[in-house]
């Protein structure tokens, strides 16, 4: 029986698949769909990184929500007149209700919306990036890396499952625990897994094989938020990321790789967590730190070998309208 004090993540409500030619789900079609994200959200950040690495900017347009949502859901207040310029809506919840008029559940990002109908297609954050890698191949840029190579999928899946349970979702289990026992259990699993991953990465540059894979993307989006929010805000404070030499160097290596750090907005990250989670931070004061300059420091991970993009190439710079303020 599940401890009622333990945080439980809601399952995705809309899970339509994208498949090449529409053989089993929605057809992949350039320009038809819009990816809605918040740069604050680690689950949405997976999609931001993968979209950049694969060069899908022209095929799949991007809507960025305000990092501070209200009771009406994620808001498009960063856009003129507070409306998404493509979908014409003020709140992501409108796309959810366009799909299901009676829907009254949570509204999450990432979400992919069908532009012609205005309906959400999927908010399945676990599946979206895998489909972008496998089913959207015809839209990939020349030189795009294979983030989910078939011969390594079993190992990638195994790595991702452990990291999801204990790290990606583990920080939330610690931060939103409603009892000391639930918090202690999540805390223990989190740092046991991080220690295991650190030991693994001490001898190789990436989690699986010698190139970046989906597993690295999923670990990165938690690590990049660790010192800024999870260490203090979620009480994941055995040590900071910057105090683990291996994980800190690994995270910096990815951050400095085109497609990773250029999607990260620390201002959005901090404002979301510290302002929205009033039950944890009732004052809504956003801390000034940490000092972010270390993210650009040399990491020396290249000495372990590896080829970040395999036989491919780095992505070009992001489109001007998607550039994040640099550190």
UniProtKB/TrEMBL annotation:
Top-level taxon: Bacteria
Q: Which Pfam families match?
A: GST_C_2
Location of the GST C-terminal domain: 149-276
User: Which residues participate in glutathione binding?
Assistant: 74
Q: Where is the active site?
A: 41 (nucleophile), 172 (proton donor/acceptor)
- The region called Disordered is annotated at 287-327
Q: Name one GO cellular component term.
A: cytoplasm
Q: Mind telling me which CDD domains this protein's record contains? A: GST_C_Omega_like
Report biased composition (Basic and acidic residues) as residue ranges. Answer: 290-305
Marked site, Lowers pKa of active site Cys, at: 230, 273
Supply one GO molecular-function term: glutathione transferase activity
Instruction: Report what the protein is called.
Output: Glutathione-dependent reductase
Organism per entry: Streptomyces lavendofoliae
């Amino acid at each position: 029986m599940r401890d009622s004090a333990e945080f439980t993540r809601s399952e995705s409500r809309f899970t339509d698949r994208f498949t090449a030619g529409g053989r089993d789900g929605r057809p992949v079609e350039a320009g038809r769909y819009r990816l809605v994200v918040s740069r604050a959200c680690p689950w949405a950040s997976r999609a931001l990184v993968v979209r950049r690495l694969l060069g899908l900017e022209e095929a799949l347009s991007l809507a960025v929500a305000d990092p501070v949502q209200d009771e009406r859901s994620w808001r498009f207040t960063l856009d003129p007149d507070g409306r998404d310029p493509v979908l014409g809506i003020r709140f992501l919840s409108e796309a959810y209700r366009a799909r299901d008029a009676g829907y009254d559940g949570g509204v999450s990002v990432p979400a992919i919306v069908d532009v012609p109908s205005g309906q959400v297609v999927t908010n399945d954050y676990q599946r979206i990036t895998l489909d972008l890698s496998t089913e959207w191949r015809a839209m990939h840029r020349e030189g795009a890396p294979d983030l989910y190579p078939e011969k390594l999928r079993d190992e990638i899946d195994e790595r991702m499952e452990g990291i999801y349970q204990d790290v990606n979702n583990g920080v939330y289990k610690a931060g939103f625990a409603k009892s000391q026992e639930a918090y202690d259990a999540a805390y223990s699993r989190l740092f046991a897994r991080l220690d295991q991953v650190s030991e693994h990465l001490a001898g190789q540059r990436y989690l699986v094989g010698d190139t970046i894979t989906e597993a690295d993307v999923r670990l990165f989006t938690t690590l990049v938020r660790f010192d800024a929010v999870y260490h203090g805000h979620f009480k994941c404070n055995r040590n900071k990321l910057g105090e683990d030499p291996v994980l800190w160097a690994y995270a910096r290596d990815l951050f400095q790789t085109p497609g990773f750090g250029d999607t990260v907005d620390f201002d959005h990250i901090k404002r979301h967590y510290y302002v929205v989670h009033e039950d944890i931070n009732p004052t809504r004061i956003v801390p000034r730190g940490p000092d972010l300059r270390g993210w650009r420091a040399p990491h020396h991970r290249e000495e372990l070998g590896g080829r970040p993009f395999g036989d491919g190439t780095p992505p070009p710079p992001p489109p001007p309208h998607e550039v994040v303020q640099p550190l």
